[in-house]
Design a protein that fits this description.
The complex is a heterodimer of chains A (88) and B (176). With 88 residues, chain A is mostly helical. In chain A, helix 1 runs antiparallel to helix 2 and helix 2 runs antiparallel to helix 3. The longest helix of chain A is centred in the last third of the chain and has 31 residues. Chain A is flat. Chain A has a single domain, classed as Helix Hairpins (Orthogonal Bundle). Chain A contains three helices and no strands. Chain A is 91% helix and 0% strand. By secondary structure, chain B is mainly alpha-helical. Chain B has two domains: 83 residues; 60 residues, no CATH class. Chain B is built from eight helices and no strands. The longest helix of chain B has 26 residues. Chain B is globular. The termini of chain B are far apart. At the A-B interface, helix 1, helix 2 and helix 3 of A face helix 1, helix 2 and helix 3 of B.
Chain lengths: 88, 176
């Protein structure tokens, strides 16, 4: 079971690397925002898998919920910023 | 553990940190810093410091990004591209030296989770044994923060509150 979870963790890290390429290279800001969003969805799952690995899922679910909520606020702020900047 | 998972996490951390420094646009640097502190939260979670990971994920990755964006929104001109001068010779000499010094010092640190390290033998056993009799709080971390170091925590709270008031004063919408 531990081996399986480690494999899942490594796969998720590789997937995050793919998104990270888009965040780093992205020609426009929109690419970066989308890449960041993808990273955060992967990362929420990653946190929960780490929680299962350490058999402390309850605590890690709190972290990932808090992160998911605040990530929503962050993305809203980014989109608001881009909207206002485009208008003026 | 044969395979240590910190290494890919630390690699991601390094890549995002370098990207936030090297990227040409202030907005993208803010986004990259958000993902940087998220990876830092993953490292904390992996090392077992769950509450630190919680604070890092919520404050570092969530709130700090919003605050940076708010600052950019209020202060920066429309064009957020960066034109930074190349680093000076002193920077190029001093910072690698500092890095080498830190790596040299890190060689003498005790291993992670070492039961004979000074932190584990000096005061932690006392806290673990006596905190319930002293403070009647089941959570040891809470009893250390709120009882043994309560003065420290109070002043920290004062600092955070005054910083928050200053931010609110600076960022409020001005009526003219």
């Amino acid at each position: 079971m531990k081996t399986f979870l480690i494999c899942v963790l490594v796969l998720l890290a590789i997937l995050i690397g793919v998104y990270l390429y888009r965040v780093l290279r992205g020609p426009t800001v929109f690419d970066r925002v989308l890449g960041l969003n993808g990273i955060s969805t992967k990362a929420i799952i990653l946190l929960i898998v780490i929680g299962i690995y350490f058999e402390r899922v309850d605590m890690f679910i709190d972290i990932s919920t808090g992160y998911a909520l605040l990530n929503l606020v962050g993305v809203l702020a980014v989109t608001k910023y881009l909207e206002e900047k485009g208008r003026s | 553990m044969i395979f240590s998972y910190e290494i890919p996490l630390l690699l991601l951390l390094l890549v995002t940190a370098a990207g936030a420094i090297l990227v040409k646009d202030l907005m993208s640097a803010v986004l990259l810093l958000g993902s940087y502190s998220f990876f830092l939260a993953l490292v904390w979670a992996w090392l077992g410091a769950v509450d630190v990971a919680f604070v890092e994920a919520v404050v570092g990755a969530g709130l700090a990004t919003v605050l940076f964006l708010l600052t950019l929104f209020r202060t920066a001109p429309k064009d957020t591209r960066l034109r930074r001068p190349p680093p000076s010779l002193t920077t190029l000499i001093i910072f690698p030296l500092l890095g080498i010094l830190l790596l040299y010092a890190a060689k003498d640190l005790p291993g992670f989770g070492d039961p004979n390290s000074p932190a584990s033998v000096h005061i932690s056993p006392t806290y673990l044994k006596q905190s319930y009799q002293d403070t009647h709080t089941p959570n040891v971390v809470t009893s250390v923060l709120m009882d043994y170091r309560s003065l420290d925590t109070m002043i920290e709270t004062v600092v955070i509150f005054s910083a928050g008031i200053a931010c609110a004063l600076l960022l409020r919408r001005q009526r003219r």
